[in-house]
Write a sequence for this structure.
């Protein structure tokens, strides 16, 4: 009997026969492949904690895996003594199936272990949780969310006292404790409502939401007569957490002509109106485009279900809505922040920004033009915002951090990507430039004219399950064993393999190639999704030439990768 089948039989033996998961497991008793998929491994921490499909099994999100993880994290916190117990943990959740139940289960487990637990009365954005860790001074934070993944998924993000998602060293300590926990006998639990009544679980009031929004609104660069508050804008929360905080922020700022996509205003765990609720995917903007055309909107904005990711579409000079990738939105934000500080005379002597190693270097050139240093980090905001303590200790002022996958962090106090503050700054920028009779589309074209005609492309291959994971591994092994010396007619000048770390960047499964025609590309498996990701960048004499060059490089590399069986 293989290990997966053994685990399956153990679950059948241990589960209460009235538990819905028991019936779910019985239904697959003759399906060896499905049993293997569900039990071949335990969910492990990736770029952003645990993430998996909801269901029965060790490779699924369910109360037993949430219980095991939470008890392990509780045991890790207990290592730090009474002060850590008193500082406690703040817990949030998104609108997905079982998110509220998992969050209450986690709160009850922390309470049973003598660790104070703070909870929100209902769903809240991921960045609000990140802010609350610093605001409340907690030891840790937990968010039950699968971010932008399809409806079948849920997840568990873990944070530490610095307000960042757990670093590798903290994650290793947590995993060590999680691995020791017997999920059937060693998880201490207590009733959620009893915990609230006894004061071991504290429900946060509206004043905490207000504190988060006040902080975001303090990031404003221009206001009042400097901006056109009547600019026509569209926003959609994609049936996630964003509706109330985004709406409150826009009203506080005084915007008078913005509209929300009504069909996507309220939370919906099925994401019926959108399917795949990822604002990176232009298909997510279908209803926004329809409303935008009807109302003549200049800018369409969207946040994902937990409101940490943020994406936009801009109306071009011909009236078409053009989706921007995360790099392009990053250019606009980097420019707006730097230009705003310079015009206000508040540009710090040692200003710093941070981007991921797979994000376009155009923003590095932009920062340099303002005397600001652009630092690099591994993907994920535990790495990007994880740079903030180093910057502060070395006399730098943190101005902004971002990565190409539509994540932006505009405040050193919110150490995760924040779609609400990014939305405020983009809406404000659009209103500011409108006063100058320019659109954000015009500004983007001006940036290409000023800094060079860059092109960006970030395709990926989705390869699910055990076979998919094994094929992704073979792809990376093949490329390492057969490093290309020429791609689409351009010579490879330099290769950086981050597998053992590089300079001050820690080890990661990433390859980066530099070509002799002002192009570079990178390859990495995703840490949270069944994908292998590609990043292609070039700078040429025109935007059209850049797009064509990128296309040729992409086709060449994907042909090589897809040939690996």
């Amino acid at each position: 009997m293989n290990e997966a089948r053994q685990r399956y039989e153990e679950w059948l033996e241990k589960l209460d026969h009235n538990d819905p998961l028991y019936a779910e497991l019985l239904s697959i008793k003759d399906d060896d492949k499905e049993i293997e998929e569900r039990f071949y491994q335990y969910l492990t921490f990736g770029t952003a904690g645990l993430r998996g499909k909801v269901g029965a099994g060790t490779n699924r999100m369910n109360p037993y895996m949430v219980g095991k993880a939470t008890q392990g994290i509780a045991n890790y916190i207990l290592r730090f003594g009474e002060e850590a117990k008193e500082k406690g943990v703040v817990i949030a959740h998104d609108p997905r199936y079982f998110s509220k139940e998992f969050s209450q289960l986690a709160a009850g487990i922390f309470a049973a272990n003598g660790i104070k637990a703070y909870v929100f009365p209902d769903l809240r954005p991921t960045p609000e949780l990140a802010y609350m860790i610093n605001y409340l001074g907690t030891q840790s934070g937990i968010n039950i969310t699968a971010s932008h993944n399809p409806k079948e998924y849920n997840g568990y993000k873990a944070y530490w006292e610095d307000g960042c998602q757990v670093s590798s060293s903290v994650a290793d300590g947590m995993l060590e404790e999680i691995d020791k926990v017997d999920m059937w006998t060693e998880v201490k639990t207590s009733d959620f409502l009893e915990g609230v009544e006894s004061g071991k679980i504290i429900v946060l009031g509206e004043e905490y939401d207000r504190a988060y929004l006040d902080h975001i609104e303090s990031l404003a660069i221009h206001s009042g007569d400097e901006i056109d508050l009547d600019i026509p804008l569209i926003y959609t929360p994609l049936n996630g957490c964003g509706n109330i905080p985004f709406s409150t922020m826009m009203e506080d700022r005084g915007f008078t002509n913005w509209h929300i996509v009504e069909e996507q205003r309220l939370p919906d765990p099925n994401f019926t109106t959108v399917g795949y609720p990822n604002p990176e995917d232009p298909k997510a903007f279908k209803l926004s485009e329809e409303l935008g055309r009807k109302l003549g909107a200049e800018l369409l904005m969207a946040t994902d279900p937990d409101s940490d990711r943020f994406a936009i579409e801009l109306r071009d000079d011909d009236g078409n809505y053009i989706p921007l990738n995360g790099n392009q939105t990053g250019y606009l934000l980097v420019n707006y922040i730097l230009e705003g500080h310079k015009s206000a005379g508040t540009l710090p002597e040692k200003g710093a920004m941070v981007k991921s190693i797979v994000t376009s270097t155009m923003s590095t050139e932009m920062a340099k033009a303002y005397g600001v240093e652009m630092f690099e980090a591994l993907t994920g905001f535990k790495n990007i915002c994880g740079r903030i303590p180093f910057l502060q200790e070395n006399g730098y002022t943190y101005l902004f951090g971002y990565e190409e996958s539509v994540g932006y962090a505009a405040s050193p106090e919110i150490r995760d990507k924040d779609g609400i503050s990014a939305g405020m700054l983009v809406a404000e920028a659009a209103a500011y430039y409108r006063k100058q009779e320019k659109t954000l589309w015009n500004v983007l074209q001006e940036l290409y004219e000023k800094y060079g005609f860059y092109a960006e492309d970030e395709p990926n291959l989705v390869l699910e399950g055990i076979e998919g994971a094994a094929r992704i591994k073979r792809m990376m092994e093949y490329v390492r064993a057969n490093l290309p010396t020429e791609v689409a007619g351009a010579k490879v000048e330099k290769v950086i393999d981050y597998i053992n770390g590089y300079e001050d960047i820690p080890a990661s499964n990433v390859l980066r190639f530099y070509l002799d025609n002002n192009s570079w590309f990178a390859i990495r498996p995703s840490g949270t999704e069944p994908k292998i990701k590609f990043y292609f960048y070039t700078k040429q004499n025109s935007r059209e030439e850049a797009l064509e060059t990128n296309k040729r490089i992409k086709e060449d590399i994907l042909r090589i990768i897809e040939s690996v069986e």
In short: Residues 543-562 form the longest helix (20 residues). The chain has 20 helices and 22 strands. The mean pLDDT is 96. The first strand starts at residue 50 and ends at 53.
